[in-house]
Design a protein that fits this description.
Elements: E1 4-7, E2 10-13, E3 18-24, E4 33-39, E5 46-52, E6 57-59, E7 67-72, E8 77-82, E9 91-98, E10 104-106, E11 110-115
Parallel strand pairs: 2-11
Antiparallel strand pairs: 1-3, 3-8, 4-5, 4-9, 5-6, 7-8, 9-10, 9-11
């Protein structure tokens, strides 16, 4: 079992930045991959960014060059730095931990709202 707690969401204007945090209840290196996903009303949950146990990152095309995923193993925390935010980035952002067993754990989500 891995408990994930997201924080850092909020209301910002277009062009501003936010940093999301995801605190895990145990070592993030126990997971095969950590990631951030988002879901807007009426839309399916979509991948935003992932980072593997080995440090390989992957981003959705829509956020490349604007968002950066990183981690602090000492704090068991994964971050999502979001710059140049756009109204279309408005969503609930979820942290996820993919286990080697195939199980995927989710956090409760944090709301990000970008006004134009």
């Amino acid at each position: 079992q891995v408990n994930l707690v997201e924080s850092g969401g909020g209301l910002v204007q277009a062009g501003e930045s936010l940093r999301l945090s995801c605190a895990a209840s145990r070592s993030i290196f126990g997971s095969q991959q950590m990631g951030w996903y988002r879901q807007s009303p009426g839309k399916q949950r979509e991948l935003v960014a992932t980072i593997t146990r080995g440090g390989v990152t992957n981003y959705a095309d829509s956020v490349k060059g604007r968002f950066t995923i990183s981690r602090d193993s000492a704090k068991n925390t994964v971050y999502l730095q979001m710059n140049s935010l756009k109204p279309e980035d408005t969503a609930v952002y979820y942290c996820a931990a993919d286990q080697f067993s195939g199980i995927k754990y989710w956090g409760q989500g944090t709301q990000v709202t970008v006004s134009s």
